């Protein structure tokens, strides 16, 4: 039996290097994994109880496709209070199935086949397959020489170097996965200004906004409102990865088009999870503070240990990752390093190559793990470095 070809874009994408490596090393007995970007905390108890109550109260039917009105009102208040944005709950906030669906919806909304999108690198790899499936070309901008911060100069140089590209927009993610670096007000304003000058849309993934450590998160929605989709959600702020509640926010003229895409992708987010989300954003508006305090202690511990071992590390201002440059004296590529570390010391970290150009020579460590696990991880990493140095 012969079958017609599948989507011609599928051969160009694969399961992410992060997931592939995580699955492969999971077979190693005694492996300690600092691989995935998932809080090690449980969903707050009062949020869980709200979910249970929603089941008992028969919230088992569709909400409207844009989401529960009460949740959208809670989101409007939460993001306005926290970050100074002012998206109208009625027609500027869309409840999505996690941040991933929000990203897929935003990319599909702004993109035509043959377009290009600017992507600062290293960056979370999940964006690229979404671009590929939409027949959009990612144009990488290597930020490894600017402390992993996208600058107007880098944007201008990249646009000038690609005169024939139909550049439609920019994807940003801050605080960043994998570096933990974030953007301050002057940097956000500068990117907003250059996006306006070149008539570029901005898709800004702000999922780690509640895990900004040394300053208040600055949302792109404050400075480039007319051309920006802001993506956020409850996965990181409230340890609700499995509940799959995200938000896509933007001006009404963009959200009006995005909701068409959203409807035919998923219809609507899960009603029970949306009811729990109301509890999270109202009575649990500051739930992230307990997690954030723990993450700061973990960051400081692992950061100091890495520096002592000879790594160069971008000091993270948010999220829960450290992006460390492998000491040159080891003469090891990123994938070689992470595979040998897993085999020899049963410690799994992610190769910097998973995050695009600019990632070679680096490793990513997730410190969303207990302090006991982090202490053991440092011990194993130190043993590995010592064995290779000798």
From TrEMBL:
Belongs to the class-I pyridoxal-phosphate-dependent aminotransferase family. The keyword Transferase applies. Its cofactor is pyridoxal 5'-phosphate. One of its GO terms (molecular function) is transaminase activity. It holds the Pfam family Aminotran_1_2. It comes from Lacticaseibacillus zeae subsp. silagei. This is Aminotransferase. Its EC number is 2.6.1.-. Keywords: Aminotransferase, Pyridoxal phosphate, Transferase.
